[in-house]
Design goal:
- This protein is about 25% helix and about 35% strand.
- By secondary structure, the protein is of the alpha+beta class.
- It has a domain at about 5-115: Aminopeptidase.
- The protein has a nine-stranded mixed β-sheet with strand order 1-2-3-4-5-6-7-9-8, sandwiched between helices.
- Strand 1 and strand 2 (about 10-15) form a beta hairpin.
- It is globular, with a radius of gyration of 15 Å.
Length: about 160
């Protein structure tokens, strides 16, 4: 995987994948990925509300003109909280999720933030493995966090160097 390079407009290139900020016109494709990825997917309206929050940030992954993944996170005073990350099912295990996370980690470091946190289903071992490979550790459990089936969420955190 190539080293992530960033510019102030949040355009990032990693090999053949182009990253940029999510625009409202991207939501139809994002919702398709969301529905294919999660048992309790966000609606278009929820995405719009999330993206309008003043502390919300996003990154969209594209191959040519095709939307293949995204990450949405909040930039809080001392930390970055990842709210949603998904890669199209046909594009998984190609480094796109890792690249999205690497770009997000780079943004947190550039902003001088001290940590990144996220929740992940206890049963989602492949996502946990990816997060661990980037330095995230389990710091807690949110019991019954997922409303669709009452599954617990693991709270994973990456502490960033000062």
């Amino acid at each position: 995987m190539a080293k992530v390079q960033e510019n102030p407009q949040l355009d990032v290139y990693v090999d053949y994948v182009h990253f940029r900020k999510i625009e409202p016109s991207d939501l139809d494709e994002i919702v398709k990925i969301e529905r294919a990825s999660f048992s309790n997917p966000w609606s278009t309206r929820f995405f719009l509300e999330e993206l309008r929050a003043p502390y919300a940030r996003s990154l969209l992954a594209q191959i040519e003109e095709r939307v293949v993944g995204y990450v949405i996170y909040w930039e809080l005073p001392a930390e970055l909280d990842i709210h949603n990350l998904a890669v199209h099912p046909t594009c998984r295990r190609q480094g796109i999720g890792r690249s999205l996370l690497s770009a997000t980690i780079g943004e947190a470091r550039n902003r001088g933030l001290s940590r990144i946190s996220l929740e992940v289903r206890r049963s989602n071992e492949s996502a946990q493995s990816l997060y661990r490979s980037l330095g995230f550790v389990i710091r807690g459990v949110r019991r019954g966090y997922y409303l669709d089936n009452g599954e617990d969420a693991l709270v994973m955190v990456l502490e960033l160097d000062g």
